[in-house]
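Most newcomers find our protein records easier to grasp once they have seen one. A record pairs a protein's sequence with a compact description of its fold. An example says more than a description, so a record of this kind follows:
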Amino acid sequence: MWLTKIKTALVLEEVERIDSLIDEIPLFDTLAQMEEAAYLLAQCKILLEQHQSQNAQRLKEIKNTLDFLKSTQTQPPSSLNLKF
């Protein structure tokens, strides 16, 4: 049952579900089930690393956009700008 759930989460790229399933890894009855679980967990690791990389890229793009927007705005006069 767990193997089916992790396969489904992996195919659908449901990162949050994968995370919760990893916390619930059961004891397996056979060596074949253990090997399948190990393979699926390796695939999950690859998927999570890809999502992490994509998120880092998105954050970088957002930061660059914010920096650009800040640079194009006119600076309001400071309330402490005293002219003598």
Remarks:
- The first helix runs from residue 2 to 12.
- The chain has a mean pLDDT of 91.
- The CA atoms of residues 56 and 84 lie 48 Å apart.
- Residues 2-63 form one domain.
